[in-house]
Amino acid sequence: MNFSFIHTADIHLGRAFADIDYDLSPEQKNIINTAHEKALEELCGFAVDKEVDFVLIAGDTFDECEHDLHSRLVLYNFLKRLETNEIGVYIVPGNHDPESSYTKELEFKDSTYVKIFGVNTPSETLVIKNREGEEAAIIYPFGFKTTEYPASPCKVLENAKSKDLFNIGLIHCDKTGGEKNVYAPCSEKELLDLGYDYYALGHIHKPDIGEKLVYPGTIQARSRKDTGEHGFCYVNVDNNRIVSNEFVKCDKVRYYNLTVSVTDDETEIDTIERIRNLIDEFSRGAELVIINLTLEGICRYKKIADNILKTELSTNRVIISGVENNSAIDTDINLIKTSGGVLAQIVLASENDVEIIAADTNKELAELLKLSQVTDTTSLESRATEIAQNICKEIYGGETENV
Ligand SMILES: [Mn+2]
């Protein structure tokens, strides 16, 4: 017998985007405001198109214990559409939306297609059928009654009990364990010892897709902590074996920490083009990417200014939220001397006669070098600063703050 299902978790309906402390265009605002729902809609459309047999939600469907009406409506529409298409949905409560917070979700209490474990009926294993009405899988649910559960869920979960059906653990837990962890800490071994065929896990927002132990991650990142692509898992089972587990991206807004090395092998324009291409690749399928850019490496005599990077790389679809420029200028004196720039002039001047070389190539530089030889510089300070800024502007291409 074969069947397919979607595994999602940590939808966090109602959570706002964090960390957005920069201006957004109206178009970008709209993308941000609707990202959440669009991601869920895409998941729903995929389930309908592929005619999956059921959908699993492994906890934290809502972000807060108080389920706001808009979020409830989003979930309602989602469940309704799946019900119309005869697709079952099985949900466990997570630490963000524990059982005690499901006080209003009565809309589906009589539905044969929706089951929120531990809410309308006791949490116990459940046999579920495929579209043909044949018994296909057995679900072992573990959800949160309240916001914390400081013990291993494996202690209360039953061992796999069916050889004929596909055994699925639907568990909100933290498989990284830890003594002080209050989010159902456990180990991979403890989970695997239960003997299930698939572990539909929830809690960790970064996708972590193992052979059997699977965290699909959140469907839509909401802060720079959730970097990378987000989506859900589409699992195909044949003869009680996992045939495929495909990670399907559905996020609309994507965060990245992008680190780029600068080298002498390319010009600044090439570097900017290279970063632009990387961003293009990252943003495939997303409507908006938010990039925190770090530059590192050593180049001979140019350091690309932060504001240039921001201006050149930002588009309607790309936000450069921050630039950390750790790239350094090569301090090899011989290389600098042959570079022909202002730095080369300074080095040459310091080694030779200031008047002849500096005055010949850069009048301001000559003036600055002369000022540096005056012992009482108080009255000349502002002029020296001004010249230094002009020279830096020439070296760094306009970035003169904090000089
Ligand atoms: Mn959680």
Please sum up the structure shown:
This protein is α/β, with parallel strands linked by helices and 403 residues long.
Gyration radius (Cα, Å) is 29 Å
Instruction: Please summarize the sheet with the most strands.
Output: 6 strands, mixed
Shape descriptor: elongated
**How far do the termini sit from each other?**
70 Å
Give me the strand/helix succession.
EHEHEEEEEHEEEEEEHEEHEEHHHHH
Number of strands: 17
CATH homology superfamily name of the largest domain: Metallo-dependent phosphatases
Kindly estimate the percentage of residues that lie in beta strands according to DSSP. 15-25%
Mean pLDDT: 86
Helix content: 25-40%
- The CATH class of the largest domain, by name, is Alpha Beta
Number of domains: 3
